[in-house]
Amino acid sequence: MDEEFGGNLKQQLKKLFDESLKLTVSDEHGLEPLVAASDAKFRKLGDYQCNNVMGIWSILKPKCSQFNGASVLGQAIVSNLPTSELVKSCSVTGPGFINVVLSAEYMAKSLEIMLINGIDTWAPTTSVKRVVVDFCSPNIAKEMHVGHLRSTIIGDTIARMLEYSKVEVLRRNHVGDWGTQFGMLIEYLFEELPGSDNEVVTTIGELQLLYRKSKRKFDHDPVFKEKAQHAVVRLQSGDPVYVKTWAKICEISRTEANKVLQRLQVKLEEKGESFYKPYIGNMIEELNNKGLVQESDGARVIFIKDFKTPLMLVKSDGGFTYSTTDMAALWYRLNEEKAEWIIYVTDAGQKEHFDLFFKAARKAGWLPDNDKTYPKVNHVDFGLVSGEDKKRFRTRAADVVRLIDLLDEAKTRSKAALIERGKDKEWTLEELDQTAEAVGYGALKFADLKNNRSTNYTFSFDQMLCDKGKTAVYLLYAHARICSIIRKSGKDMNELKKTGNIALDHVEERALGLHLLQFSETVEEASTKLLPHLLCEYLYELSEHFSKFYSNCQVNGSTEETSRLLLCEATAIVMRKCFHVLGITPVYKL
């Protein structure tokens, strides 16, 4: 049956070893096998390895004299392994390492079935049904800049990984639309442009200029600062005069941000800080009834053990804070949206805030005491983007780099490279423009995503647009090359999928087939650990496997043409799904 040929090899092997463990040590409960793809140095011994037999034996040793050592236990586990078409052979080496060689016939059949039924049949399965991913989240009245790049791209990829895994993802743009900056802006507008009815400000550039002026005045004029703080309270209290001006500012900012998000092909639903205002009162009352809210210098706070600063819910002037809306948003997401997992994607500088906020939620009983049980929360932190001078990435005028300028530059450079290769003579203007955009934006995204998100990285257009090495350009070329091979064959691939068979006889055919079948477990690991770079690593290694295969195995015109064309098609399909999950548009010719 088709169901026996699934995409997640690791999960299938784990089920087999689970069964074997129950038979081998039936009296011992809670033991779990640890199955992983073999490291390079063990690949000659097997494709996968069960490598925690020594740990299991150390648990059994005081209670059971049946097994004289981990290797003996390993042999017993192998003997009790259920018969499966997946496994060709097993061996035990060293202190109980169980090496598994997979059946090439099984792998070939799995690839054939995926080609017919589609790659969505390889989607990982998860117990989680609904997840909130909170990402991007720019402050209103500011243009999106390079600092928003990482949150937007990483958050979008995490959302896409979960969506591929058939999880309902609520993509949330928790914009800062309710804080101190509005007091500054509105008060400045009222003082400097009285009676203008807000029509004087129509663009994000004008708004940003006003923001800088109001911030300067806020920092240096104590009287204005006090007025601005009162303005925030009046806004948060619903004063219609302040709300009208606030709504205009939000509209201008939203329009500008949406232009950037559309170009990045990122979908988000805005539910900013202001959305949660109706829930704040009841939320604070609930926390107060639980005895968690205390008075401190006129403010209402929650003290958390081991934190010097308490979580502030209401300031001494009656205004709300970032923490107030974060707590209200979490309450809403748990109780109204019924989310089981809430993921926050922000820079590492906010780590302490999230540690405090999560501990307050646990103290309130909203979340379990451990971070393994659902509902759960995670802070997906990331490092800074630096320029090639290793300093924070800025323009020559020391301004923050606008995100829209980065996108323009990436597309312009990409188009120039294509024209240099004469593509303007071969393609229509529309094809040239679309390809330049796909390559330029893809390069920008992949250059970010390929890094472990917790590290800083250096921004370099030259490196990201290079057609060699671990870049989107190289990978898009690899995909276009595969498409060209298939086109040149002249074969009807839809017909070939129905009638042809795959054979993994050559060592490079087998290596490519195995790597293709590890796609599902890679997505599962990347989404579980919230590490998109694992999928980037997989995609790069896939292109390397294909390159070795193509160098050693003639495709068109060979006696194995049908099988190898199907392997080409399977590779292209998996690459396209990787691109989709990473938010990159594939190209079919370059």
Automatic annotation (TrEMBL):
Top-rank lineage group of the source organism: Eukaryota
Keyword Lipid biosynthesis: no
Gene Ontology MF, one: arginine-tRNA ligase activity
Arginyl tRNA synthetase N-terminal domain boundaries: 11-102
DALR anticodon binding domain mapped to chain residues: 475-590
Family: Belongs to the class-I aminoacyl-tRNA synthetase family.
HAMAP family: Arg_tRNA_synth
PANTHER family found in the cross-reference section: ARGININE--TRNA LIGASE, CYTOPLASMIC (PTHR11956:SF5), ARGINYL-TRNA SYNTHETASE (PTHR11956)
Protein name as catalogued: arginine--tRNA ligase
The organism of origin for this protein: Cardamine amara subsp. amara
